[in-house]
Write a structure and sequence with these properties.
InterPro entries: HATPase_C_sf, HATPase_dom, His_kinase_dom, HisK_dim/P_dom, HisK_dim/P_sf, HssS/ArlS-like, Sig_transdc_His_kin-like_C
Protein name: histidine kinase
Subcellular location: Cell membrane
Shape: elongated
Radius of gyration: 42 Å
Structural class: alpha+beta
EC number: 2.7.13.3
Pfam families: HATPase_c, HisKA
Distance between the termini: 77 Å
Strand content: 5-15%
Mean pLDDT: 75
Low-confidence stretches: 398-410
Strand order of the largest sheet: 2-4-5-7-6
Amino acid sequence: MDTRLKRKINLYFSSIYLVDIIIVALITLFLLSILGDYIQINRSQHSLAVNRIKSDLRGLIFLAVIYVAFITKIIFILKKNQNSPRIQSDFVNNVIFVIKNGFHYKETRSKLIISIALALILLIAYLYFLATGGYENNIFVKFFQTYPFKGSVFVIIILFFTMMYALKKTLDIIVVNDALRRVSEGNLQDDIKLDGSPAIKELAKNINLIKAGYKEILENGVHNEKLKTELISNVSHDLKTPLTSIINYVNILKNSDITEEEREEYLLILERKSLKLKVLIEDLFEMSKINSGKIKLNRELIDILSLIHQGIGEYSTLYEEKNISFKVTSEEDAVYMELDGKMMSRALENIIINSLKYSMSNTRVYINVKIDGDFVNVGVKNIANYEMDFNEDEMFERFARGDKSRNSKVEGSGLGLAITKSIVELHGGEVKIKKEGDMFKIYLMLPINKG
C-alpha cells in the first residue's frame, strides 16, 4: 500500500472530521424518523408495525453497526486525547470551543444554557406529540398545514434574526480588526466606537486604552529622543567651554614672557575652570547613579529644619555681593522625618544655591516648612533677576536653566533641579514649580514616614 495512502488512513482513524459528525447526525435523524413511523403505525395496527420492523431489520442492523462504529471512533479519539483531540474541522472545533468555554464566562453562560434548554424542550415536545398524536395530530405538522403562510413567515423571521445576530457579531470583529489594522499602520487618533453587548464594548474600551498607552509611549519616546539629542549637545558645550579655557591658559602659561602676577592670575582661572568641570562631571555621575535605580536610601530620623539651616549656613557666603538673605518659617520647632540625610541635604542645597544664583540683588528668599497630614511641605520663594519665560515642567529636565542661555555668566551644570526632583521622588515625594510674575516658587512634598 502506498505510504501516502497509509498516512491518510491513519490520520482519518486518529482524527474527527465533519463528515463523521454529519453521518452520526443523519443516522440519528433517520432512526428517529423510523421510530416515528413505527409509533404511528403501532397506534392503529400493531402487527403491521412489527412486520415493518422485521422487513427493515437487516437495514436497521447495518445502519446501527455504522452508527456504533462512528460513535465509538469519536468517543475513542476524545478519550485518548482529552486535552487536545485531533479535530480536522473548523465547524466542529467552533462547536467544541463554544461548549468548552461558554460556561466559563457569565456573558455567554446564560445564553448557552437557554439555547441547550430550548433545543431539548423542542426535541422532547416533538417526540411527545409524535408519540401521542402521530403525524396527523402532531402540533408542529398541524400548525404548518393550517397556517402555511404564517408558518413560513415565522420561519423566515427566525432565520432573518439569526442571520442578523450572526452578522452583528461578525461585523463587531471586523470593525475591531479594522481599528487594530489602522493602529498597526500608525493611526492613533481615532477611537473604536461599538454599540453591542457589554463584552464587545469592553473589548473596544480595552483596545482604546492600549492604543492610548501606546500613543503615550510613542510620544514619550519622541520626547526622550529630543532630550537625548539636547543632552548630548549641552554636555558637549558645557564640557568643551571649560576645557577650551584650560587648554588656552595652559598654552599661555608655557610662555616665559608673562609676569609672575599674570601667572598666578591664570593659575586661579585654571583652578576655577577645573573645579567647574569637576562639579559638572560629579553631577552627571550622580544623576546617572540616581536614574539607574540601583541607589539605596539610608533612612534615619532627621530634623528637616536643621538640614535647611545647615545648607543656608554653608552656602550663605556664595554671591555675597548680591546681599541676599534667607527667612525660614515654621509652626514647629523641629520636624523629624525618615530621610537619607546625605541625599536630602544635596536636594535642599541645590535649591538654596539656585536661589542665590538667580535671585535679584538685595532681596529675601522665603522658606516655609509646614506639616500637612502625613506629608511635610517645604516651599521656597524668591524674586528672579531675569524674565521667567520658561515652562515649569521644562525646569526639571537635565541641563535646563531658567535663563535658557548656555553662555550665561551664572555658572552651573543645569542638573540641580533634575537631581533634586529625583532625590525627592526616591523618598516617595513630589516637586512642583510655579511662577507668578517675577516670583519663582518651588514646593517639595515629602512623606513624614517611610511607609
